[in-house]
Amino acid sequence: MSLSTLTKPWEAMSYGFLDGSAKRELRRKMLKSVAVPGCQMPYASREVPMARGWGTGGLQVSLTLVNPQTCVKVIDQGADDSVNAASIRRFIAQVAGTPTTMDTLEADLIQSRHRIPEEILREDQVLVLQVPNPEPLRPVQPNMSIARQMHADADYGRMWLQLYEQIVRSGRVMQGASYPSLVNGRHVMTPSPIPRWDVPKLHMARHLTILSAGREKRIFAVPPYTRVEPLVFSDVPYKVEEHGHLTCTRSGTRGFFMNEIPQDDGSSAFEVSDSEWGVKTIRARDGDGESRGETWYKNGEMPQ
Amino acid sequence: MLATPAPSPAETRDNAAFDALLWAMSRPGVPRDLPEPGEGTVITALLDRECLVYSADPLLMPEIMRTGAELADIDRADHVFLGAMTASDPLAAVAIGSDNYPDDGATVIVRASLGSGAAVRLTGPGIDGAVTVQLGGMPDGFWKARAARLRYPMGFDLFFVDGARAVGVPRSTNVEEM
Known about the structure:
By secondary structure, chain A is of the alpha/beta class. Chain A contains eight helices and eleven strands. In chain A, strand 2, helix 4 (83-96) and strand 3 (109-113) form a beta-alpha-beta unit. The longest helix of chain A has 16 residues, at 20-35. In chain B, helix 1 crosses helix 2. By secondary structure, chain B is of the alpha/beta class. Chain B has a single domain (9-177), classed as Bacterial phosphonate metabolism protein PhnH (Rossmann fold).
């Protein structure tokens, strides 16, 4: 054994910013989180040059997965061009030399904050969701040690109680985003603050989804073809946002999740939230060729 | 501005090995290609000095020691290399974690011959319907020994390595012997 076999050649920066031991720890935890779908696994969550709470969890997963051939797309609340998305995309490209794209169909790895793209993801694509609060039990049990025990016991009665109280008080379930969902019939997870519109896209999806909370240091996953069922009462069906009849004022696309833009006269205009879908629709309208893929929602409805 | 770092050969190999392992774990029963034959790339992609490792195959020891991982008894190890198994007894001692921390369940790497021998039918997360895979070279009672240990979400996760091909069977998978 010589010194050269024990050391590695000097590098100005490790490939993909994270050092080897950070990557190996994330790899081990990712495998475990896939093996137990929806179960929150603790991990170290290293420092990255970005404030915690701004997607550091997702970024660490992306940096572990990428290689120079991985085509990366980053979304922030549906848009590819917002500051958070653009900065993360540029950072990944800079430290890992990856090609980047805005096209959902071209991407190999999609890191997203608060939305799942409208086009159906393929088997070979990986969706990485940034998670601010990974603990669905926090509103009903702030003590995280007790919450962990409740997960261990599959003790989710209080989750239903919370939904029941919302229905009694307000006449409907008030939970708008991060709708608690039962994964593989065992663990309740938060799907990250995606709208209710996006939760059915995770159910029996073809792609792998990894959810990572950098500030909270927890990672969990939804493998392909895994049951993801929003918590509902049998007589109160799950309802997605009523956006199926809305038309985007910029692109004219209809039947997708919209951003509401208040107008001066008190009315609202709507703009499709998945910005790249809007761009593709405009391109098709202007005769620049059809690049739109198949979507989860068809005519504003999720096929059963 | 810094130049974009280029991946070293070791980084490229570990990244490819993990890609194969993650794919294999998320699609149980579907073989995936490791960058090199054998357990070597699994060891370098996953192990370092934070790991407790048990290896039944002495030929893997030098490679494991090089990662800095600590050797441990089989019931304490988080990564268990069983090599080519002759008896299913070791499975009775593998760590399965706890209900609070299912991630303490071990990752078990076994050598098998894919595409020959007894067939098993797998169902569960990651599988569209059911998948049948032939995993030869397993000792008698292997799947019974696995089933006896699993108390989902407690359990251990299996990788079967045949040359450069790897098949994953996580604890969430139901295995039916054909």
